[in-house]
Design goal:
13 helices; 498 residues; Pdz3 Domain; 4 domains
Length: 498
């Protein structure tokens, strides 16, 4: 009697475990499977337990073995706990159905995709508005620009930054990206350029054989020797400015009152230096910069003394050359300014005038209108290409102040040059140069107008004594002999000079 009772208890426990709370659906599934197995017999199912409820609990196992065929017990489905999946939002279903949305794309990956693309977008009705493009990015290489409206990216329509990121994430890196944008009132297709082809292999010094390396060394030696021979035979393109050459300069902002020992002062050449006595070419043009260092600055008894050494000149239109020059004289309307025989500039202590107080500028020790004359203590060498040297018509001038204004008087007329051939003589006065009145020209401006490219022409208006003003056309850089015009050789071309 104990064994049936034990079997009954075990069967009850198994049924209770199979039908726990929350597993009603599983129990129903088992009952349905059992009913489906009995249905094909087409007989009325007899009650399994005909006795009272007490007897049903006593022999449940026996009743199961009698009613269920062996083959039905083999295919009995196992008991499983079924769970229900959470509902998918409509927006997520739309993104999942979109062909350009990669599986598992997250907001973080979309931001990374837009950063990799290098574009900032704003959502629109039928396109995505481009706000900014990162220079050097894929978007810049594609040709996108701010204020464009992105319609298609890599064959996918886009209307928002999320769709643009999805289109970029779904792009095949082996293909060239392309896009369609609305630019103003036009529809513009864009496509990136083909990547550069790999350079072809080129042999280098390490790829040469021993014989090839030897032949290369022999050939390079021959080329080097030939180059040295040609260089030795080539005439030097150098012009030398001799010792004692005079140069006038001024300081456009003046010399400040606070100047001290060790300061660097930068002046401007107001006149030019010609290559030789023929005045055919300029080797130091006007407006060149000249720099000097204050070796000593002192003050005593209401005067200031400056000892300045000028050490370099930046040629207008050329290079910087070293020079060695000292002060020789001073000219201008400022009082109490002179240069001592030793080259020291002596200036009276500056007096602050009412005009200077109105300007509220710093007091100056030397006025900008004062010109200083420099003399070269050593020769200066100039090496420039041929196009640097400006040619003249064969005359030289000096400033002449008259009641009618500033004019320029001819002081030298070079024989055989264009000025002499035109009939100009020493003492004639220039009232206009290249169409500009001399009343508005500084000396450096007048020289710059007279000199120019060799072979070029200019017009000058000349006032001769006891005659009316007349205009002449002159030619630069040519000489005349027996009526034959010949180009004047450049200053460094000594072989052509006669």
């Amino acid at each position: 009697m104990r064994m049936p009772t034990l079997r009954c208890a075990l069967l009850c426990l198994s049924l209770l475990w199979a039908a726990q709370p929350g597993d009603i659906s599983a129990a129903n599934t088992i009952d349905g499977a059992a009913s489906a197995a009995v249905a094909p017999a087409k007989k009325k199912a007899k009650p399994v337990f005909a006795g009272p409820a007490k007897s049903r609990h006593k022999h449940p196992a026996r009743a199961t073995r009698k009613t269920a065929p062996p083959q039905q017990r083999k295919v009995r489905p196992p008991v499983k706990v079924l769970t229900q999946a959470p509902a998918v939002p409509a927006a997520a279903q739309t993104e999942a159905a979109s062909p350009q949305t990669p599986a598992g794309a997250a907001p973080a990956s979309r931001h990374a995709a837009l950063a990799a693309l290098g574009v900032s977008l704003r959502e629109g009705e039928d396109s995505a508005a481009i706000l900014e493009i990162l220079p050097g990015s894929q978007a810049a290489a594609l040709g996108l620009a701010p204020r464009d409206r992105l319609v298609f990216l890599n064959a996918y329509p886009v209307r928002s930054p999320a769709e643009s990121a999805d289109a970029w994430l779904g792009w095949n890196p082996n293909l060239r990206p392309w896009a369609v944008v609305l630019r103003g009132l036009s529809t513009v297709p864009l496509q990136s350029q083909h990547p550069d082809e790999e350079p072809a292999f080129k042999r280098g010094p390490k790829d040469l054989s021993a014989q090839e390396a030897q032949l290369q060394a022999v050939r390079l030696g021959r080329v080097f020797q030939s180059a040295q021979a040609e260089f030795a035979q080539a005439p030097p393109m150098q012009v030398s400015i001799p010792t004692g050459q005079v140069l006038w300069i001024r300081f456009p902002a003046g010399i400040p009152e606070t100047v001290a020992t060790g300061d660097i002062l930068e002046g401007e050449a107001t006149m030019a230096v010609a290559s030789d006595a023929n005045l055919d070419f300029l080797c130091l043009p006007p407006r060149s910069s000249v720099s000097g260092k204050v070796l000593q600055a002192a003050a005593s008894a209401g005067t200031r003394t400056l000892r300045i050494h000028f050490f370099k000149a930046a040629l207008a239109g050329g290079h910087v050359i070293p020079i060695s020059a000292r002060l020789a004289d001073a000219a201008g309307e400022q009082r109490m300014v002179k240069v001592s025989p030793g080259g020291t500039l002596v200036v009276g202590e500056p007096v602050v005038t009412a005009a200077q107080k109105k300007r509220k500028g710093p007091a100056v020790l030397l006025e900008p209108a004062v010109r200083l004359r420099l003399e070269l203590a050593e020769p200066a060498a100039i090496t420039e290409p041929p196009q640097f040297y400006a040619a003249g018509p064969g005359l030289w001038i000096r400033t002449k102040e008259t009641e009618a204004g500033r004019q320029f008087e001819l002081t030298h007329v070079i024989p055989g040059r264009s000025a002499e051939k035109a009939g100009l003589r020493v003492g004639d006065v220039l009232t206009a140069i290249a169409g500009r009145s001399t009343a508005k020209l500084e000396f450096g401006d007048a020289l710059a107008a007279l000199y120019g490219a060799p072979g070029s022409r200019l017009k000058v208006t000349v006032q001769k004594p006891a005659a009316k003003a007349e205009t002449f056309e002159l030619k630069r850089g040519v000489s005349y002999k027996d009526g034959v015009e010949t180009p004047v050789p450049l200053p460094f071309d000594t072989a052509r000079k006669t």
